[in-house]
């Protein structure tokens, strides 16, 4: 019973049940709009022309450097390198969102200013004979644990804690990145421009591994393309909700919804046929929506002699939705969120495996061209850049979290996992400001 009460209060976080469901609906509004648009595609008049040979020509012109048309691939590589450099410069010039500390409190922080560090108990600081109250004392902050305002309970409001009690409870080592913007510990801020710079080579390497066929590879491709595509994005949403600042899940849901809406609108305006259409009907066959055509996912039926995937495919509203790849969009955006928020490099490498597995499966199943993968990456980078530079985006959320923590706001300064496992040994596991051992 006590665990159920704690779980309920942690989820609601001083909100009513109605307000909680209202917030969930607003946060997932763009995803609901995307689902609604997808369901309406069969009832909206579509363009009569479906692009098939155009993507084949673009594929060869931009990615095949060993042919006589290598000038297109070289120019494409130069454009990618220039865009990556400009994007990296833009990411370094981030908006300044400094935490808003209360005027009644003073915080000890050495100069120069460093990235965000955990909130630490005052007992963990040593000063080599000087007291911490001395503004000129030199001290070392321990990087072990970060208990939160013990023995106070998370359910108590900030008004129950006096300024003297807070000053005796902890100090803050300021860890601000350049330009004053708050960033999580071990943040790979330049992951999008680096991935963009290497995308041409990665896509070509994955394409070379998608040529050889086997039943084992069929199963692996199906796991990545179907199972993980539907399970990993919700898992990342739960991970953001339990381990990271309030508002991170909101931005994740809004970015997924906005990205998918852009992809669906592109599929509606410019319908495109995948590679398997060319392999089945040739380059000169004119595609139409009335054809009983099956796309790349039904390649499993062709190899295993079943009709399961074909039945699933016929229920999909838009059968000519090759460019951009929604699998590439979703996996790229998931990778960006993990690179930004994850404190452990192992989890980021796992997200990289998921990303490359999605790209490879899309090429292996002949569901997408190489250009479709690159276009999906561009869509996700665009959405990610918007939520980073938006005034209520990632920088603002991280800044507000540090501010709430500094001002002992236990409603806005704690994660879901911290509230559930408060005053336990694993509380710091859910604290994004807690240090991790190397």
Automatic annotation (TrEMBL):
Pfam families: PAP2
Biological process according to GO: mannosyl diphosphorylinositol ceramide metabolic process; sphingolipid biosynthetic process
CC annotations in GO: inositol phosphoceramide synthase complex; membrane
Keyword set includes Transmembrane: yes
Domain of life: Eukaryota
Keywords: Membrane, Transmembrane, Transmembrane helix
Cited CDD domains: PAP2_Aur1_like
TM stretches of this protein: 24-45, 65-88, 187-207, 219-242, 249-270, 311-339, 346-365, 371-390
Sequence ranges assigned to domain Phosphatidic acid phosphatase type 2/haloperoxidase in this UniProt record: 251-393
Protein name, per record: Phosphatidic acid phosphatase type 2/haloperoxidase domain-containing protein
């Amino acid at each position: 019973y006590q665990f159920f009460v704690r779980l309920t209060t942690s989820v609601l976080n001083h909100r009513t049940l109605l307000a909680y469901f209202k917030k969930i609906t607003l946060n997932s509004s763009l995803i609901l709009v995307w689902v609604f648009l997808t369901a309406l595609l069969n009832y909206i008049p579509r363009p009569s022309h479906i692009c098939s040979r155009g993507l084949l020509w673009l594929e060869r012109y931009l990615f095949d450097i060993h042919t006589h048309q290598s000038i297109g691939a070289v120019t494409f590589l130069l454009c990618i390198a220039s865009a990556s450099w400009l994007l990296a410069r833009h990411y370094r010039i981030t908006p300044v969102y400094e935490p808003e500390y209360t005027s009644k409190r003073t915080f000890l922080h050495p100069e120069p200013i460093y990235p965000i560090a955990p909130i630490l108990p005052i007992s963990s600081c040593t000063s080599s004979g000087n007291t911490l109250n001395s503004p000129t004392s030199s001290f070392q902050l321990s990087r072990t644990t970060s208990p939160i305002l013990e023995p106070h309970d998370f359910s108590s409001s900030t008004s129950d804690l006096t300024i003297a009690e807070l000053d005796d409870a902890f100090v803050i080592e300021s860890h601000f990145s350049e330009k004053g913007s708050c960033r999580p510990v071990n943040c790979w801020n330049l992951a999008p421009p680096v991935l963009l710079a290497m995308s041409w080579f990665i896509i070509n390497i994955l394409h070379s591994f998608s040529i050889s066929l086997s039943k084992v590879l069929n199963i692996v491709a199906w796991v990545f393309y179907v199972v993980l595509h539907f399970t990993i994005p919700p898992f990342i949403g739960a991970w953001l909700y339990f381990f990271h600042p309030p508002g991170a899940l909101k931005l994740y849901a809004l970015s997924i919804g906005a990205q998918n809406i852009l992809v669906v609108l592109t599929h509606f305006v410019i319908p495109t046929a995948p590679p398997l259409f060319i392999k089945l009907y040739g380059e000169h066959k004119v595609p139409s929506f009335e054809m009983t055509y099956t796309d790349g996912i039904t390649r499993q039926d062709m190899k295993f002699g079943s009709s399961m995937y074909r039945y699933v495919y016929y229920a999909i509203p838009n059968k000519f939705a090759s460019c951009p790849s929604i699998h590439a969009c979703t996996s790229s955006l998931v990778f960006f969120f993990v690179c930004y928020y994850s404190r452990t490099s192992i989890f980021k490498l796992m997200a990289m495996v998921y990303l490359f597995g999605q790209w490879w499966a899309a090429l292996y199943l002949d569901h997408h061209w190489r250009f479709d993968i690159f276009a999906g990456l561009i869509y996700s980078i665009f959405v990610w850049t918007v939520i980073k530079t938006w005034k209520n985006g990632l920088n603002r959320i991280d800044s507000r979290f540090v501010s709430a923590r500094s001002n002992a706001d236990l409603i806005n300064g704690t994660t879901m996992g911290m509230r559930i496992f408060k005053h336990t040994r694993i509380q710091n596991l859910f604290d994004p400001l807690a240090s991790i051992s190397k």
